[in-house]
Amino acid sequence: MPCFAHFGTAPNPRRTPVILFQMKLSNAFRLLVTLLLACLLQFSCEEHAGERNDEIIQVESDDEEMNEAIDTARETLDQFLEKRSGSKDEFFGLLKVYFEDEGDSEENGEHMWVSLISEENGNFTGTLLSSPGWLKSVKQGDEVGFGRSDITDWLYTEDGRAVGAYTVQLLRSRMTEEERADHDSSYPFSFE
């Protein structure tokens, strides 16, 4: 039986009633915004219980193209971090992070989107935006900690276009033209 890893496409802001963005903020204000966001996400999850906000796409763990996309995202992560730290205006950026429940094998983990709150000496903190499909140790809206090696993709928007999103671009390339158009129509930015 093949082993699978979980990859979700970018969170769909049109399927979630919360508009997510990130600006340079003081730590206290960031904490307040994060708590409000977590409350809104929790309310949204309760309101839409039974609905899935994330599309789950399973990919074999030995998928060479996907592993290359992850490697590219890791090699270029500094581009994301530099853009975020140098942004004087509103910054919308996400990290895809690998999570697994303690004691599970690597093939049972999930790659999910996180909004970055802070980064210090290679230690990251963020808010989990994706809804886990099967993991029990985290839930949508949780503040999560992770290291650089846990990051498997990143994206930010610039001039209405997604930058990065290496795993998403690969998944899009495997879609039919109709599937890709449907996927892309759900986002307020372009993947082209």
From TrEMBL:
InterPro entries: DUF2314. It holds the Pfam family DUF2314. Residues 63-190 form the DUF2314 domain. This is Ankyrin protein. It comes from the Bacteria.
